[in-house]
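tool_call: predict_structure(chain=1)
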Amino acid sequence: MFDSVRKFARAFRVPSTQDREVAYLNESKDRIDLEFRMRQVDRGMFRKSSF
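tool_result:
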């Protein structure tokens, strides 16, 4: 019973900032693209507030 509730809750969970950063870095095509993406993450690409 609780397993199905947990699965349902995970399906609607909003990914954290760290999850989004890791997913973005994992999409890199090569080392140069990875380094570019790492610089963007370090500059706060995912941490900017919407205010």
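agent: The chain has a mean pLDDT of 87. Proceeding to next step.
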